[in-house]
Every structure is written in C-alpha cells, then in structure tokens.
Amino acid sequence: MSAPLLSVRDLHVSFGGVHVLQGIDLDVGSLEIRGLIGPNGAGKTTLLNAICGMYRPRQGSITFDGTSVVGRKASDIASLGLGRTFQTSQLFKGMTVLENLMTGLHRQTTTDFLSAAFGLRRASEEEVRSEEEARRALHFVGMSEFADRPATALSFGQQRVVEIARTLIGDPKLVLLDEPAVGLSINRLAELDTLLRRIRDQKGVTLILIEHVIRLVMDVCDRVTVLSSGRAIADGAPEVVRSAPAVIEAYLGKELRARNSAS
Amino acid sequence: MLLFSYLLMSGITTGALYALVALGIVIVNKATGVINFAQGEFFMFSGYVGWMLHVQYGLNYPLSFVLATLIGFVLGMLTDRIAFRPIAKNDIVSLVLATVGIGFILKGLARVIWGGRSDYLSFPPITSPDPIMVGPLMVVPQQLAVIAGTAVIMLVFAAFFRLTRAGKMMQATADNARAALLVGIRTDQIYTLAFGTGAAIASAAAILTAPVTLIYPDIGFAFFLKGFAAAVLGGLSSLPGAVLGGLIVGIAESLAGGYIHSSVMELSPFLVIMVVLVVRPTGLLASRRARTV
Amino acid sequence: MPFGRRNVFLALLAFGAIVPAFANGYQLFVCNLVAIYIILAIGLNLLVGYAGQLAFANAAMFGIGAYVIGLLQVHLGWPFWAAFPIGSLVAAAVGTLLALPALRMSGLYLALSTLAFAQATQWVFLHWETVTFGAGGFKTPQLSFAPLPIGKPAGLYYLSLILVVLLYLFARRLVRSRIGRAFVAVRDSEVAAESLGIDLLRYKALAFGLSGFYAGIAGGLYSALLNFVAPEGYDLFQMIIQKSTIVVGGMGSIAGSVVGASLIILILELLREVKGFQEIAFGALLVGFVLFMRGGLIVVVRRYLSGWEEPLRLTPKAEAPGLPRPDPQPSVAEK
Q1: How many Å lie between the alpha carbon of B40 and the closest alpha carbon of chain C?
Q2: Domains, chain A, ranges and CATH?
Q3: In this complex, is the C-beta atom of B274 within 8 Å of any C-beta atom belonging to chain C?
Q4: What's the burial of A262, exposed, middle or buried (CB within 10 Å: 0-12/13-18/19+)?
Q5: ipTM of the assembly?
Q6: What are the residue boundaries of the structural domains of chain B, listed by start?
Q7: pTM value?
Q8: Is C326 on the interface with B (CB under 8 A)?
Q9: Per-residue pLDDT reduced to its tens digit, C87-124
C-alpha cells in the first residue's frame, strides 16, 4: 500500500485555554473520498483549518504528500496542492464568476505587476489562456452560462458549486470541503454526489468532506472518520461507523443508547 | 516629587477627559460597529453651546451642563438618522466619511455662529484657580472637579447600562445583533440610542473641560484622536478599557511632556498606540474572538 | 477598447493638452493641482478600493515624497530630475513597510495604526528642524526645463499630464490582470485568497508600495508646483480630501478616481471664496455623496455613457458588524 496522501499524528489545537483537538490521528489515502462527521463542536472545522494552515497546532504533525506542513503559511500549503472550500460562501463578491475562477489559477500563472502594468505581450497572452481555462473549468461543473454574471447574482447553492470549481482549477491533489451540501435541495444533492465522484475519477483529486447530511456521506464516501469532543472515536467504512455504539452515543447521548439496548 | 505629582494630576485630569471621549467612541462602536469620527466635533459643539448658555445667557453652571448634554444627545440622534441609518450596509470607508462629513458641518457651523468673536473662547473657572496641597501632592481644585465630575458621569452611565432596560438592550444588541432582533429588541432604536449616548458623554466631557481649557473650533479633532487612541488601547469593545486607555494616554502624555520635552506630548499617544497595536492588536482588555469561517 | 471610454479620455487629453494656451496663471495652477490629485486618487484607490486596506497614511506618503525630493535638492544639491525618482521610490519603500502592521490587523485597527503613523510623520516634519526646517517649511529651487523652450508653469503642467496618463494606464492594466484579481481577492476574502495560494503579505506590500509610489510622485510634483514644502500640506485634512476623492469618484474604479479628484479640487477652489462656509459645504458634500451616490459618480457616468464597460469592482455592500446578517438563502427554487 502506498503512503497516505495526508497523514495527521497526535494533533492538538487549543484556543485560549479551550482544548479543541485532543490528539487526532488521521490517514487519508490517495483518491479516497473521506467523510468527516460528528456532533457540533466536535472540532471538524478546526481540523480542516489546522490542516490547511489557518491554525497553528500546539502539538502534533501533519504530513501532506510527503512534506510536513505544520507551521507553514496557508498560502504556501495551498501551493503544495491543497484546496479548500468554506462553510460560508467565500466567493470574491467584487468579481464575476469567470474572474473568480481565473483567480483560482493564481499559482499557475506568473505575470508579475511590472509585466502587467507595462502591458507586455506575454501578460496578455497568459490572460487569454487563463480565461479559456476558466471557461473549461466552469463547463466541468455545468455552470458555463453564469460566466459573466457578478458573483453576488448567484444563489447560495450556485455559489458553492462555483467555489468548488475555483478550488479545482488550480489542480490540487487534495481538497477539503466544509459542508458542501448546506442548503441544497434533494435534486441538487444527487448532482453534488455525481460531481464529487467525477472530481475524484476524472481529475484525480482526493477529497475530505465535513458533512451533516448523512445520506450524502453514506453514498459517496469510501471511509468515514467520526469526531467527538476533539477526538476521533471511529474510523472505517460508512455502514460500520454508522452503527458503532460510540458513534450513536456521541450523537444521541448515553441515555438513548441505554434505552436502545434495553428494548 | 512635587513635579511628579503635578504632572500626574494633570495627566489624570486630561486622561479622564480622554476617557470620556473614548467611552463615547466605544459605546457607538460596540452597538453599531462604526467609529464616529464626529465625536470630537460633538465635544466641541457642545462646549460652545455650554459657553453660550452659561456665559452669554447667564444660566448657572449645573443647568448649562444638563442642557448642553441634552443637546449633545439630540445631535447624536440626528447623526444616526442622517449619516448612519440610511447607509448602514455600506462599506466602512463610506461610513467613516459620512461621520467625517457631519464633523465638518458642525465645525463650520461653530465657526460661523460663534467664530466671529476671538476664535478662542474662555469659560470662567468654577473653583478657585489656586493650587492647594493635599499631603505631598499639589493639586488644582479645578482638576479635582473635573476628575470628580468624570467619575460621576461614568457611574451614571454604568448604572444606565447595568440597571435600566434600555441599557441592557444596548448590551444585548452589541453582543449579538441577530439574537437581539429575535427577542424583539428594536435594534434601529438602539443604534439611535447609542449615537445619542455617545454624543451626550462627549458633551458632558466638554462642559467639564470648558473651565480648564480654551474652546476653539479645531479642538474637536485633537480630542477625538486622543480619545480614539485611548479606545483602541483599551480594546474597542471594552468600556472599562476605554477608561483605562484614556488614563494611560493622559498620564503618558503629561509625563512625557514634563520629563522629556513638551514637543513629545503630541507624539506620545501615537507611540503608545503603535506599540500596543503591534504587541496586542485587540487592545488591553478586549476579549479575543477567534476568526470563524 | 470600447468606444465610449476611450473617446472620452482622448477628448479630455486633447483638451488638457491645449489648456496652457488659453489659461491664466491661476487656472493653470488649478489644472496642475487636479492632475496631482488624480495621481493621488488612483494610488489610493488601488490600496483602499481594490486591495481593501483601510489605510490613512497616504497623505504622509505624499509628504514624505515632497520632503525627500525637496531636501535632496536643498541639502545635497541634487537636481530635481535626479531627486524626483529617488524620492518617489523612498515613499514607495516606506509605504511597503506599512504592509507589516496590515498583516496583523485590519479594518479600524489598521486605520488607527496608519493614522498614528501619519501623525508621527507629521511630528517629524514639525520637530526635526535641523533637517526638515520645522513648521515654517522651506523653499525648493525653481524648476527649469532647459534646454526645452518652455517656462516652468507650462512645463510642469505637461510633466504632470504625461505622468497622469502613464500612471493611469499602468493602473488600468494592473487591475485587469492577475495582480488586480489578487488585490480584490485579498479584499473580499483573505481566507479564500490564501487557500488559492495568494500570499497575503506580498500583495498587501505591493498595494501599499504602489500607493506610496504614486503618492511620492504626486508629492514631488506638488513641491515643484508650490516651490515650497511645509508640514500642513500633508496633514489629516489632506488625508480626508484624498479619501473623499475616491469615494466621490467611485472606489474600485480607476476612471472614477479621475472624476472624483477633478471634482473635489474644483469644488475646494471654488469654495475658497466663502471660507467660513467651506467646511459646512465640504461636509455636506461628503454626507450627500455617501448617502445618495453609492459607488461614486462613476456609476452615474456608466449609466449615461454607453459603451463604458470598465470592469467595475465596487467594494460590495458589506454586512456592517453589529447588524444582523441575512441568512444564506437555501435554494428552494434553483434555476
């Protein structure tokens, strides 16, 4: 078995005295779709934030694609091939959809400010190529018609899809998705499911997704990790994890479990 | 020791005034998220109004005090209606500029209405100007009056926030505006109240200062800058922080001016700010809020 | 390039080129002043409107440019043509350093620390008398355009005009490029920008440095225009004027900077007659613009001049902190 793409060991993250992550171990293999679930406050978003460099852990190691990333700048880690979407829409509201995507090509492009300011030909050529690639990326997620609309003109669900496209255009190896299904209708859920699979199969991207929509997690994820109160309490295939006692307890509390086993 | 006590008292006095200006800034900021750049002009304008009431129309000092403060309150409410409410969702530069605009209007008005006579107005002192000795400390009674007055004002407002319903609603709104809306608090009224209260505090400060300083149209901005510095020092969302910040700025300014050189007086508040903001960007007493996405 | 805008600007340029032929000394002075403020406004717009950094130090950069360029001539005997680029670069360098605090704080805290820096600079101008000549300021040597057969007022005016055109074109190309997008990304969502590999420090430093450079150039021109440098030209009132030019013209629009700067300077000069009411009028103007012309004058221009098509990057309506944020719309009826 090849080395995992992402490897987290004994991760501890604290904020002002609150010990949010208390020793997380996690291995995600290449081309996996990993689900990350758990009750609110379990530390799921914190874990993603630590992986992508937004938070500095107190202790522990994070290895991405063979490189240690603890303590590195978020933009540097992104440049290693790590993408991320957020719970709230983080599209650049002052731009059109197409421009948002072209921004996603930032680390792939090289025009510096002097070339741009002087209007050098290589700058405008790169700009044309970027626009073409952005259109292709939009097409991949089925949003081509929205290319020239301002980002703010899209509905929330549409914005989330564009955000995914924007993350993908940079050719990441791993993408962290924070609740991609929030606010989606049943139809859209099925489309998201298909999209996630296409991203893995056609683009070769590994995915980790935080989700509360359990149906999606069960359908699309290869493995699921369950977090509760800052610890990983279960890790395995979706059906197995779902009925693990520790997981039920974490979600519903001890009493219900006792009632279940009594009946 | 004598010099030190003099400088200290002088610093505490001006510090108390900066604290009041800072309080006004923090109150508005906590409730609305905006820095009211006209705060200094409220101070200045009410100072003039107080002068007009007390010196021109001969009303006694306490009455002038109350009236000027009320007028300040009204000014604050008007500012909210004109320059905040309609544009509350705009970007912050526009909001700031709108309050700056109000400040200019007030400054121009003051110049037009009262500037005709000499530009610097003096207010008769309310206590004897001779210094007295309290133990080893040399104090000027006027300073004590200012400090006492400031303490009273702060207590009044603290009581307002803790004990009255309006005050508690303001705290709730400042804490979590959406939750406040959900429990039926009329947040737009709260914003008006916040602006009004902030202005009233500045006005009160002005009337307290008037006997010890000359009033002139440009005084507003100088006080605003120091007050703003004090507010940031204390942490923009902390009321006791504003008081602490004001005292620190006042004392630092006074000591630097006395021991180093008078020219440093202008600079020291800013050095203080720059150092604090680099070391502890959220201010001395503010609670840290983690960035959530 | 689309029809409407290019022709408008060519017309303006043609007009601007012939101004010295018919304008008197004062009018030429005002036109030159407008050019200087356009440069300031464009630089400030890059920093505040595009990169979203709420900085109040631009007037200080303006002053640093003017002082360095002037002092190099007065103390070290440098000719203007050598001092000018060097002084501008110094202003740019100082501006870049301000990016460091910009990393640790944003919004109002950044505003305050840049304000503090500006006041400190002002203090240095006032008190470091051996070098800066203190409150009284100092005169700079008269500028000569020899061997060109042109006098100083007209010569300086054309120099300013040429620089305006160049700096305008630079800025326009910049904002339509990958760099411009990076600025807007930093403004609209730092976390998302970082997640796309945009280095925050680098781009903030670039934005600060650029606005410093523009301000430095403007400072050099200004000191040459007045033949005089003194602290009060670079104080907070100055800063407010500059901010007003970009709000009035339209933040996030380079063309808007042209409009805003022109208008504000013209109004200020007109109001000079009625000094007592100058402040009231200026204040009312500010409030009026903010209230009724969201997005600045450039929005009006866009509406009435077809074919304008500048990519408009208005600073979006933020949810003011403390006010309830609208809930994200769950898409019930998605198209």
Answers
A1: 14
A2: 6-91+170-262 (3.40.50.300), 92-153 (no CATH)
A3: yes
A4: exposed
A5: 0.89
A6: 2-221
A7: 0.84
A8: no
A9: 999 999 999 998 888 887 777 778 878 888 888 898 88
